[in-house]
Amino acid sequence: MSIFPFTQDVPELEERAAQELPVFRELAYDYENNCLKRKGGKTYLVEKDEAVRVWIYKALLTRRFVWPAYTHAYGSELEAVIGYSNNRDILDSEVKRYITETLMVNPYIQELSGFRFEHRGSEMTVAFDVTTVYGRFTHETEVYNE
């Protein structure tokens, strides 16, 4: 309980938000073959953190402001880092910023932390920890800076 009568503690707000949000669902996704998974010839839903993983994967791959099927809040602007800088610290900072802007629009995601960058030529792998209303997991994605 807060000492101020008009505010609430952050854990109380997060707990209430988790209770008010419906269970997050997405279609199951096969990342290796870049297609929806099927059982008995039909697509199926996954829930909670697995659904958030699918959403993150798709949000980072979808170019923002390009597709009229999506709102302007959905998608990534990571393509802006292509040829951006030869300075790895600046590049890492910009990639972290773009990823954070892309993912924090999702109310099920509470925090992104522990960003780790690995550079191999013009390719970069970014791993980071995702804290959701359901738990915590690590996500890894590739970014190209050609």
Strand order of the largest sheet: 7-8-9
Number of separate helices: 3
Provide the succession of SSEs: HEEEEEEHHEEE
Helix-strand makeup class: alpha+beta
Pfam family, one: Sheath_initiator
Protein name: DUF2634 domain-containing protein
Organism: Gallintestinimicrobium propionicum
Give the arrangement of secondary structure elements:
Blueprint: H1 10-20, E1 25-27, E2 29-30, E3 35-36, E4 38-39, E5 42-43, E6 45-47, H2 48-61, H3 88-103, E7 109-120, E8 123-132, E9 136-144
Antiparallel strand pairs: 1-6, 2-3, 4-5, 7-8, 8-9
Pfam families: Sheath_initiator
Organism: Gallintestinimicrobium propionicum
Protein name: DUF2634 domain-containing protein
Task: Describe, in plain words, how this protein is organized in 3D.
By secondary structure, the chain is α+β, with helices and mostly antiparallel strands. The protein has one domain (10-144): Roll (Nuclear Transport Factor 2, Chain: A), CATH 3.10.450.40. Helices cover 28% and strands 31% of the residues. It is built from three helices and nine strands; from the N terminus they run αββββββααβββ. The protein has helices at residues 10-20, 48-61, 88-103, and strands at 25-27, 29-30, 35-36, 38-39, 42-43, 45-47, 109-120, 123-132, 136-144. The strands form four sheets. A three-stranded antiparallel sheet has the order 7-8-9, covered by helices on one side. A two-stranded antiparallel sheet has the order 1-6. β4 and β5 form a beta hairpin. The longest helix is centred in the middle third of the chain and has 16 residues, at 88-103. It is globular, with a radius of gyration of 17 Å. The termini are far apart. It comes from Gallintestinimicrobium propionicum. This is DUF2634 domain-containing protein. InterPro entries: Sheath_initiator.
